[in-house]
Amino acid sequence: MIEIERKFLVKSNDFISKSYKKSKITQGYLNSNSNRTVRVRIKGNHGYITVKGKSNLAGTSRFEWEKEIDINEVEQLIHLCEDFVIDKTRYLVDFKGHTFEVDIFHGNNEGLILAEIELTNENETFDQPDWLGQEVTGDIRYYNSYIAKNPFKNW
Amino acid sequence: MIEIERKFLVKSNDFISKSYKKSKITQGYLNSNSNRTVRVRIKGNHGYITVKGKSNLAGTSRFEWEKEIDINEVEQLIHLCEDFVIDKTRYLVDFKGHTFEVDIFHGNNEGLILAEIELTNENETFDQPDWLGQEVTGDIRYYNSYIAKNPFKNW
């Protein structure tokens, strides 16, 4: 399927009190080339392998394929990953009919917070909460696959 | 799991008359780096995604993880692959208690034939049929991930 989303920096932690769900995410990349990333992820008690294609020019839309797999298998696959493993906490925050996924990064990405909103088409409009900062959609530095190679603390 | 196998060139087509099964295989690589290959494969009517780790020094043993996935999903993933797609026909040939997988390559790898035998441990012995040629276990040129980048017709 094609995934359409936009990405933002986050100005304050105010979103936390408005969140309705929180999950721990650990993920690594079997390929971090932006033409075809292959990600393995543990999210809560579930495991996934995900392949993403190249973004369109605006960076809003991208082929994505995902399969749930056994969490123990993900742990084995994470050992094979390139570069660094990413640890983050994801908060789901509803705001005026849309859900933002807000990721607080940990470890060597401490200090980085990113929000994403998934849309059904590229022209769909949405309201922006006060805690939302600058848009970084399509900025390759904010791809998790880039962060895995270049941790935020080294920026 | 750990896969233990040895690989050989093939001297003649005599194995075909002794084979008991034949499948068409089409496969591509989402990552062809030998530290962690990610392969998508259509074999007959089935689809698979397979991750392999780095070989041991002798080239006989390697971590392998495989998951069956929908064949239509494999077709989408093959479009994302690096380099060339590999087409081959696989024959299964029993010989004195072991099974050889013999691959006849097509397209831009026409002329290449490779046989593999899977073993339960690295010291397991086995009889070699007359059609089996030189051993190439651990020779990176005969990895399918290498062949996808460097088709046999260019060797």
TrEMBL record, chains A, B:
Source superkingdom: Bacteria
InterPro entries per record: CYTH-like_dom_sf, CYTH_domain, NeuTTM/CthTTM-like
Transmembrane regions: none
Q: Indicate the residues that form the catalytic site.
A: 29 (proton acceptor)
The name under which this protein is listed is CYTH domain-containing protein
Query: Which Pfam family would be a valid example here?
Result: CYTH
Instruction: Describe the location of the CYTH domain by residue ranges.
Output: 1-149
